C-alpha cells in the first residue's frame, strides 16, 4: 500500500511554504554544529567556505524551491534527499562546504559520471573523455570492478 504522500505526488516549497521547511533545516544545522565528532567537516561560517556561504549563494541565485515527496525533500540531482542517512554522510564529509572545494574541509565527491564505451562520435567541449576516444573501444569488466570497488570505498556506489 502506498503512503498518502506518495499518492498526492510531489510538493514544491517556495515563498511562505518554504518557511517551515527552512526552520526544520536550521534545527538540523544546529544538530550538525553541536556534534563535531559525528560531523567533523561541518562548517557554518561563510568566511571558511561553510554552509552559510552555500545558503547565501542559493538565495542570490534564487535557487530555493525544494521538492517534497513522501516525507523527504530534494534540492538537486547531486544532493541526497533530506533528511536521510545519505545526507548526514554528505554533511560529515564536508559536502555542504561548497566554497571549501579543494581544501581539507571538503572531502565529498558530488557525483560520478562513468562511460561504458569510448565509441562516442561526439567531441563535446565539456567532456574530459574526448582525449581518450579511440584508445580502447570498451572498458573491460575487470576495470569496471576495480572502479566500482574504489567508488564504494569512497561511499559513492
How are the SSEs ordered, and which strands pair?
Elements: H1 4-8, E1 11-12, H2 18-33, H3 51-60, E2 67-69, E3 72-74, H4 85-92, H5 141-153
Summary keywords:
single chain; about 160 residues; mainly alpha; 2 domains; three-stranded antiparallel beta sheet; 5 helices; 3 strands; globular
Shape call = globular
Question: What number is the mean pLDDT?
Answer: 81
Q: What's the number of domains?
A: 2
* Strand percent estimate: 5-15%
Distinct helical segment count: 5
Low-pLDDT windows of residues: none
How is this structure best described in words?
There is one protein chain. The chain has helices at 4-8, 18-33, 51-60, 85-92, 141-153, and strands spanning 11-12, 67-69, 72-74. By secondary structure, it is mostly helical. It has two domains: 4-100, no CATH class; 112-157, no CATH class. Strand 2 and strand 3 (72-74) form a beta hairpin. The longest helix is centred in the N-terminal third of the chain and has 16 residues, at 18-33. The two termini are 29 Å apart.
Describe the structure concisely for a colleague.
Helices cover 33% and strands 5% of the residues.
Amino acid at each position: 500500500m502506498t503512503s498518502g504522500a506518495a499518492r498526492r505526488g510531489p510538493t514544491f516549497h517556495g515563498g511562505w511554504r518554504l518557511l517551515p521547511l527552512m526552520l526544520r533545516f536550521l534545527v538540523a544545522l544546529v544538530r550538525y554544529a553541536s556534534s563535531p565528532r559525528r560531523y567533523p567537516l561541518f562548517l557554518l561560517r561563510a568566511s571558511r567556505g561553510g554552509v552559510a556561504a552555500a545558503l547565501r549563494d542559493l538565495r542570490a541565485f534564487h535557487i530555493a524551491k525544494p521538492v517534497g515527496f513522501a516525507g523527504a525533500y530534494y534540492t538537486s540531482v547531486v544532493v541526497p534527499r533530506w533528511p536521510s542517512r545519505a545526507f548526514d554522510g554528505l554533511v560529515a564529509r564536508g559536502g555542504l562546504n561548497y566554497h571549501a572545494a579543494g581544501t581539507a574541509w571538503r572531502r565529498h565527491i558530488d557525483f560520478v559520471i562513468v562511460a561504458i564505451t569510448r565509441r562516442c562520435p561526439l567531441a563535446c567541449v565539456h567532456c574530459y573523455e574526448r582525449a581518450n576516444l579511440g584508445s580502447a573501444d570498451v572498458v573491460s569488466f575487470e576495470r569496471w570492478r576495480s572502479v566500482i570497488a574504489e567508488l564504494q570505498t569512497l561511499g559513492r556506489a
